[in-house]
């Protein structure tokens, strides 16, 4: 029945305690118990009191082999089982192999001196047994004391191991919490860097939009300049028409002079008056010509002022571009500094992990892979930002090239207009000189033909009046053109003021962005300070824990020294006991009888 019961319990996983005292188990039962101890992994307590297992040596040796192979049993009761010194030796061999038994009760057996020594010797290799009862076994008191000291030493060692395990668990939890905190801080830093990059991209977009607006304003100003040039061309055409009319009048005067040669004698006095009137008219024409030249000079001055304004606006654009380049450079420097800080923090973090967790290389490799992935993502993002920056620089270079081409075209047009104006002035001066020469010739001829041309003079006077009226109309047109130019200049001034206001607003936005960036810098500095404080605290905690571990190691060394000293004392005691026994045996009558034989 015991064999069947124990055979059924071999595959059981729920029974924790088994009590079989007083069942008179024999060899078959002892063998079944050995098999049970080999196969069962759930029984923690086994009570075998009053079973006389020590009588059957083969069965008890098989039981001891099963006990040596078991790593689950914690309490074993073998009281009153008639175990002798041989059975104690078998138990000592099993206890050297066993690593789970904590309590062993061997009271009221026949272990004796040899069995006690065997058990005491096995305790040097067994460090899990906390309690060993040997009362009622004829074991000497010194061996019992040595066994008690070994048990105390095992208990102290177990408590120290438990404390170290608890501390290691606490340390591992703290390390995990620090890892989590550092990963959170790293993720927060990554989020802040992403936000800063998004803000930088937004500012770049805003600056690009502003540049496009300024380009549109420049295009509008160029269109205004083209319209002014067209109006100047119209006025020049009108002046050319007036000059053609004056030339026609000169031809008519020459014809009248040829006809007046016959009438010169009769109308000499009238010719003198006509000479005075012609001189007055010539003065008036010269005055008109001087006024026209003054107006041309004013128009040229206005064109020069417009060119200066264009140059000022181009300088402002150049300053804005320089500000953009400066901001991009500052942002690059900030990104490089942030990357360097991240790299330094990563190095510190890796060093602390390598110092703390040399036993957990797998986790460190995993974290390193994650950090490499994050670095790759950061490098990808930096490459994207650099590509965006290169695109913006290309756009700026294109805008600069377009502005330079437009400026060159405008300068070429101005040079052409100036050259044309100079040529026209030279032609006008030559024409006037020719007219003056012809007038002098006509005066000489008119002295001979004054009498014949009184009627023609009257017609010429009427035509001159018509020409004066036409000249007045031209003057009015010129005044209207001047008014239009003044109104356009006022519109340009208002537009320039608007552009200045927009530039001031942009400068205010840029200053606000700079203040925001300074706030972000302060936040980054605060985060770095927090990280430094956390790293310092972490290092202090590590130093404290290392000091505690060193103290514990020193205590272990002291206890091992005590154990070695106790072993030496026990060995000396054992040698003394052997010598005493040998002397006692030699001095007894049995010893003398054996010596005589």
UniProtKB/TrEMBL annotation:
Aminoacyl-tRNA synthetase recorded as keyword: no
Keywords: Coiled coil, Cytoplasm, Cytoskeleton
Signal peptide boundaries: none
Membrane spanning stretches: none
Main location, first listed in the record: cytoplasm
Stretches of the chain forming a coiled coil according to its record: 211-245, 289-569
GO cellular component: centrosome; plasma membrane
Compartment(s) of residence: Cytoplasm, Cytoskeleton, Microtubule organizing center, Centrosome
Cell membrane keyword on record: no
Entry-linked PANTHER family: LEUCINE-RICH REPEAT-CONTAINING PROTEIN 45, NY-REN-58 ANTIGEN
The protein's name in its UniProt record: LRC45 protein
């Amino acid at each position: 029945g015991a064999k069947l019961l124990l055979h059924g319990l071999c595959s059981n996983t729920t029974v924790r305690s088994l009590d079989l005292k007083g069942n008179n188990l024999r060899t078959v039962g002892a063998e079944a118990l050995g098999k049970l101890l080999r196969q069962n992994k759930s029984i923690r307590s086994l009570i075998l009191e009053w079973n006389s297992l020590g009588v059957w040596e083969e069965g008890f040796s098989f039981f001891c082999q099963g006990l040596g192979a078991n790593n689950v049993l914690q309490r074993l009761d073998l009281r009153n089982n008639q175990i002798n010194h041989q059975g104690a030796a078998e138990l000592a061999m099993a206890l050297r192999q066993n690593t789970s038994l904590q309590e062993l009760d061997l009271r009221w057996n026949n272990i004796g001196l040899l069995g006690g020594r065997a058990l005491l010797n096995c305790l040097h290799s067994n460090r899990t047994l906390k309690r060993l009862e040997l009362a009622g076994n004829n074991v000497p008191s010194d061996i019992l004391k040595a066994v008690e000291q070994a048990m105390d030493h095992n208990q102290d060692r177990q408590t120290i191991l438990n404390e170290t395990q608890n501390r290691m668990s606490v340390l591992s939890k703290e390390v995990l919490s620090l890892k989590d905190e550092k990963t959170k801080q790293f993720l927060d830093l990554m989020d802040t860097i992403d936000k800063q990059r998004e803000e930088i991209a937004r500012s770049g977009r805003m600056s690009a939009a502003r540049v496009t607006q300024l380009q549109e304003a420049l295009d509008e100003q160029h269109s205004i300049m083209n319209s002014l040039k067209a109006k100047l061309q119209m006025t020049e055409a009108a002046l050319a028409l007036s000059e053609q009319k004056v030339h026609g009048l000169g031809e008519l005067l020459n014809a009248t002079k040829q006809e007046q040669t016959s009438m010169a004698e009769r109308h000499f006095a009238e010719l003198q008056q006509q000479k005075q009137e012609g001189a007055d008219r010539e003065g008036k024409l010269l005055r008109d010509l001087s006024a026209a030249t003054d107006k041309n000079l004013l128009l040229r001055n206005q064109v020069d002022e417009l060119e200066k304004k264009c140059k000022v606006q181009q300088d402002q654009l150049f300053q804005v571009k320089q500000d953009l380049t400066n901001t991009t450079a500052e942002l690059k420097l900030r990104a490089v500094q942030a990357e360097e800080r991240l790299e330094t923090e990563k190095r510190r973090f890796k060093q602390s992990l390598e110092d703390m967790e040399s036993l957990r290389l797998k986790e460190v490799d995993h974290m390193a892979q994650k950090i490499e992935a994050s670095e790759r993502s950061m490098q990808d993002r930096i490459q994207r930002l650099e590509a965006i920056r290169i695109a913006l620089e290309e756009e700026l270079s294109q805008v600069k090239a377009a502005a330079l081409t437009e400026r060159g075209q405008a300068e070429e047009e101005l040079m052409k207009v100036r050259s044309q104006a100079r040529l026209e002035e030279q032609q006008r001066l030559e024409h006037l000189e020719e007219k003056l020469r012809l007038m002098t010739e006509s005066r000489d001829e008119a002295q001979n033909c004054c009498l014949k041309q009184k009627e023609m003079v009257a017609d010429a006077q009427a035509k001159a009046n018509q020409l004066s009226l036409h000249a007045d109309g031209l003057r009015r047109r010129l005044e209207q053109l001047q008014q239009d130019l003044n109104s356009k200049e006022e519109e340009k001034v208002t537009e320039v003021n608007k552009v200045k206001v927009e530039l001031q607003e942009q400068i205010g936005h840029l200053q606000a962005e700079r203040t925001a960036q300074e706030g972000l810098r302060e936040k980054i500095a605060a985060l770095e300070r927090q990280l430094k404080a956390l790293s310092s605290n972490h290092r202090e905690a590590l130093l404290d824990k290392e000091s505690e571990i060193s103290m514990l190691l020193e205590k272990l060394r002291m206890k091992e020294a005590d154990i070695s000293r106790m072993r030496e004392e026990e060995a000396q005691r054992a040698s003394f006991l052997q010598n005493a026994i040998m002397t006692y045996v030699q001095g007894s009558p049995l010893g003398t009888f054996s010596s005589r034989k």
